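sorry to bug you again but im stuck and you know this stuff better than me. what follows is a protein written twice so to speak, once as letters and once as structure tokens for the fold. mainly i need to know what kind of three dimensional shape the backbone takes. anything you notice is useful, everything is just below:
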Amino acid sequence: MLNLMNDELKKVINDDQFYSLNTLKTPHLARNLARVLIVFSAVILMGMFLPWQQNIRGSGTLTALDPANRRQTIESAIAGRIASWKVMEGQFVNKGDTILTLSEVKEKYFDPNLLARMREQIAAKESSIESKVQKKNALSNQIAALERGMKVKITQAKNKLRQAHLKLESDSISFASEKISYDNSLAIFERNKQLFEAGNISKNKFNEMESKIQLAKAKRVSAENKWIQSQTELINAEVDVAGTEAAYIEKISKSKSDLNATLSDLYDSQGSLAKLKNEYANLSIRNEQYNIVAPQSGYLVKALKSGIGETIKEGEAVATIMPAASDLCAEMYIKAMDLPFINTGRKVRVQFDGWPSIQFSGWPNASVGTFGGIVQTIDRVDSYEGKFRILVKPDPNDDEWPEQLRVGSGIKGWVMLDDVPVWFELWRNLNGFPPRLYAEGSMPDTTKKADKSK
């Protein structure tokens, strides 16, 4: 509105007396509010350019980095009945301490002297095996002696056969010689007979010639008998060689059969002995299983079986033990979208349940009650609902984690990435974009190494 009044007139007229003029003025409260809004907007605008450290949020629980230090159940290797408890819940036990004692429930193992009786069976079986070994050795010696005797007897029989061959040959020659002598004597006798009949020789001379032919005939018959006898002796010698060999082979075969039978019994006894020793070893180990001991030092967290006389099955859990873990780590679960931006060695801020803290995720230096960590392991597969597990160990360059922490308590964590302006972080979250891992023109050493390896 155009102001045509001069200054002297304004001094004379009081604006407060005129309602119309008063309504045209700007209220003082609005002016103050406008100033506050302008200052506030300027502060917010400047704050939009403040540095903000990007992070990836996750939650999970405390666990042990070494699987051997994680909570485990103690199982019974045998079936039995609880006889007595040696410890109480919450008590610290050392490795090898007895937790509870079992009594037997199977009738097969009721005999208290079962081990002694098993040792007696083993000793008897060993004595039986020793006797069979001695019998085996005796049969082996007998077979060797029979084989040596067979060689000697066959050699003797073959020598007799050779002698029979020579005698047959000699008798055959003698028979041929006597036969020729007889034929000659017979021819002489026939000529002398003709001379006698013609009266050219005397009766005495003829009788003498007759005597000679009879003697030559007798010698021929005798030589023939010897030759026939030699043939018979040769046949007998041949039969004797075959018979001797057959007799000894029969004896040797019978001894070998007895040896094989003895070896079979020996092997069966050795198998039975091995089975008895196996049963004895199993029984000895079973007797040791009556006392269920702590596999490692830790705290007995919970007794899964209670009372006296309760029956448990083979492989059934009886108690839970928590090792005194000294390698606590945070087990966090991260969305699959954020997983590519996390690598081992990344810094993490961890908040523990029950531990008072004030967390400024974008300004970790301003956080109170949180503790530093480093990404140790990233799982290769998802754990559940598409989330991946990472293990965070304490940062040795930061404050130590509290001693009061227990495995299984909940945690929240922030994996710290790079610094960006606040406006960029707001814009990223409004659009659902993943965080920016690298600043422009920068590249972590791990990525450079990966590129070199490719």
Notes: The longest helix spans residues 203-288. The domain at 114-284 is CATH 1.20.1270.60 (Substrate Binding Domain Of Dnak; Chain:A; Domain 2). The helical segments are 7-12, 19-23, 28-47, 114-198, 203-288, 422-431, 445-453.
